[in-house]
Amino acid sequence: MSNPVSADVLARRGVMLVIASPSGAGKSTLSRLLLQDPEFKDVSLSISVTTRKRRTSEVDGVHYHFRTVDEFNAMRERGDLLEWAQVHDNYYATPRAPVEQALIEGRDVLFDVDVQGTLQLYQTMRADMATVFILPPSIPELHMRLQRRAEDDAATINRRLKTALTEIRHWQDYDYVLVNDDLGRCYSELQGILRAERLKRTRREALHGLVDVLDRDLESLLAAQAARL
Amino acid sequence: MSNPVSADVLARRGVMLVIASPSGAGKSTLSRLLLQDPEFKDVSLSISVTTRKRRTSEVDGVHYHFRTVDEFNAMRERGDLLEWAQVHDNYYATPRAPVEQALIEGRDVLFDVDVQGTLQLYQTMRADMATVFILPPSIPELHMRLQRRAEDDAATINRRLKTALTEIRHWQDYDYVLVNDDLGRCYSELQGILRAERLKRTRREALHGLVDVLDRDLESLLAAQAARL
């Protein structure tokens, strides 16, 4: 074929990509690779709303949207949050507006949410989501990776391992499952998933326009042929 | 990660890949590319059962499984056919056994079936299927491609165009939709779809074994840590 269709015919709705894994299985590395990949320059990370105090190294609107508890409650009551959680004394949430704006503009959004967050997102946004769970190849490997992070003490590692057990037990809540025994292959699999998800019929709303034209032109052609017979 | 898991952990169930398009939109070329691609050497074409007479150029079991009408009816009554259709005086069908064997062995099967065949396959095999519809970029392009096939007369082309209209109106019955305005890009999209479909959690049954080991090893590690605290 040598008849390229116009770019607007190929316009599509964005993908909500959730990557989940126990700490140490490679989620952060894979997310960073994706966000730095020139092929996926339209993918952005969802920025959470939080009520926790801003650290001096953090920038409002970049690392988090920092809000007061009153502001947070008002957002929640208005339905402006796609999912939310309380962690210790602080609230965290995914704001709805930037996600919906990105989806309409055909930009994909990457989410760093846990199992509970994923299940909450499913309740309202299932059709827009593609969810990927990353499994570690073994527990000794996972443990070694957590120990290598010099900043974490034994208690932190122990807490992360406990959380890992909960997360791993929810692996069946995800659409895709990858085993991260080889980072290169695992990243290439992640790329493939996003490429394919973008081609799903439900995301290619602009194709209705192309199909309408094909249908009309085909009817005209058949009518012209019938007149000639 | 540098701890490759064994190949049996990565074993998976095969994919039933349906590629559909109006005649002339590129389905045959894309299917041939896929069947010849070294990356996808485990993909095979589903061989239909038919009651029509074998042509001298055809080999039983290669082009079709040639059967008598009685044999065909017996297969149908035993539930040995995944879908079937009557075309003029002949019957055509997809036999169940080779498909199920391939799926169990982790081999993908490519199907050349029309919309009615796809809808019949959905009734029993939906979870194993990934369906792709190929749209032509325009009707003049489609018409030109049909005319270029020197062997087809005007009546055949007219019949193909009528069928094309019916097929195109069913584009929303498919999981993925591709626009074939560039064969290279379109084939690369098809490759991406198959790569991603292979990674779906529901197809990776062998991962249950890995998760059981991870769960057990993580519980042991946490128990050992608790004993030491």
Give the tags.
17% strand; globular; alpha/beta; Guanylate Kinase phosphate binding domain; 229 residues; Rossmann fold; homodimer
Describe the structure.
The structure is a homodimer of 229-residue chains. Chain A contains 8 helices and 9 strands. Chain A has helices at 27-36, 69-77, 96-104, 115-125, 139-148, 154-168, 183-197, 207-228; strands at residues 16-20, 44-45, 49-50, 65-66, 81-87, 90-95, 109-111, 129-135, 176-179. In chain A, the strands form 2 sheets. In chain A, strands 2-7-1-8-9 form a 5-stranded parallel beta sheet, sandwiched between helices. In chain A, strand 5 and strand 6 (90-95) form a beta hairpin. Chain A starts with 15 loop residues before the first strand and ends with a helix. At the A-B interface, helix 5, helix 6, strand 9, helix 7 and helix 8 of A face helix 5, helix 6, strand 9, helix 7 and helix 8 of B.
Could you provide a short overview of the structure?
2 copies of one chain form a homodimer. Chain A is of the alpha/beta class. The first copy, chain A, has helices at 27-36, 69-77, 96-104, 115-125, 139-148, 154-168, 183-197, 207-228, and strands at 16-20, 44-45, 49-50, 65-66, 81-87, 90-95, 109-111, 129-135, 176-179.
